[in-house]
Automatic annotation (TrEMBL), chain A:
SUPFAM superfamilies: SpoIIaa-like (SSF52091). It comes from Streptomyces cahuitamycinicus. Residues 30-104 form the STAS domain. This is Anti-anti-sigma factor.
TrEMBL record, chain B:
It comes from Streptomyces cahuitamycinicus. One of its GO terms (molecular function) is protein serine/threonine kinase activity. Residues 201-312 form the Histidine kinase/HSP90-like ATPase domain. This is Anti-sigma regulatory factor. The keyword Transferase applies. Residues 17-161 form the MEDS domain. Keywords: Kinase, Serine/threonine-protein kinase, Transferase.
Amino acid sequence: MNTRQQLSANGPRDPVPGLAVFPLAGRQGVRAAGEVGLTTRAIWEGVLEQAVREDEDVYYLELSGVTFVDVAGAGALAAAAGQLSDGRRFVVNRPPPALRRTLDLLWPGQRGIEVSAS
Amino acid sequence: MTTAVTEPFGPLDPFVHPAFFYRDEQDYLDGTLPFVREGLEAGEPVAVAVPGKNLVLIRDALGDDAAAVRLLDMREAGRNPGRIIPGVLRAFADAQPAGRRVRIIGEPVWAGRSDAEYPACAQHEALINAAFRGRTATILCPYDVARLPEHVVADAYATHPTVIHPGSRAARDSDAYAPEDVVTRYNVPLPPVQEALTFAFDSDSLPHARHVAVGEGARLGLVGVKLDDLALATAELTTNSVVHGGGSGVLRVWAENGYVVCEVRDDGHLGDVLAGRRPVPRDQRGGRGVLLVNLIADLVRLHRSDSGTTVRCWFAR
């Protein structure tokens, strides 16, 4: 096979993108930056487990700095939303397109998730 | 063949899955309209998922009754044959009250399906039997015998336990019914590719694999949702390789006939013939990666061999 370009996982590369999480000021929730995938899944799930244990009606996930969420990451959010007590919800601000797409296709109308573009 | 591959094809009852052969529009309406009307009269949920031109025929002939039928253009909803079971057939059937028979007309094969698509169509037709066995449903599959090649009609005898001939409404047993053979026969190595961007990945380079695919997809002309979908598919397939497929794999991306194609190959063995075709219960964690790929790609082809698994997916530019 001719390859136009042969890249290797063993060659020089940029640092692996991580996931950084910061508490929000003035409201309950976090701002996250980076990517949600296999390598950062534990961080993301930790955030969601903590969120389920909180007591405010709304838990904000500010995701404008998140560039990608994989299906397992979307599934963790859907599962956490399903565990929220009645009347509680996640407000997901400015999620990456992949998260919207996955939620629409695999968890349409999931209780406890409100997606916000602002 | 392993037990895991053959086991899903047991007795179908009460599931009914006839192929319906037609030669022209009159045959088509004579075979499909009574099927729909009998369902409506019995209070059964009815869906029709056929190519747009045939959908218009049925819709117009039904008149006001069309409002009670779920109508889908199979050229859109079923462009990827791997999407049809989870995204069309089971999506409709599973949403109906339990115990009531569900009627669906599903036409996944039409003249003009490409050589790349057809093996996935034949496997899909065979796998309907595994996905619906034991369920109270009837799926009638029209075949345009005037325009489809002979081998396609021969395959319909192998993927359907019964067959209805033009001018007849009676289903006759197919002597050639052998769905597991069809799944195996079309499990063929995917056509070689002359030139492709190639990236070997492992757990440390998973995010890079996705970035490489997205960069190449954009360079080859994918934009917007299609580019997002390429990112999702690449992430799910490469993650599967790392978690279930031996810890590493090879990603390739290239352009082909108006599509960007992404392929992931690894050393894993995918035993489940219905992988990515079952709807997943809402409360189940995990197991949705290949399902999502089937829902978003324009075509998915899979090759399972002793040395590993290759998944190839097409995204229209």
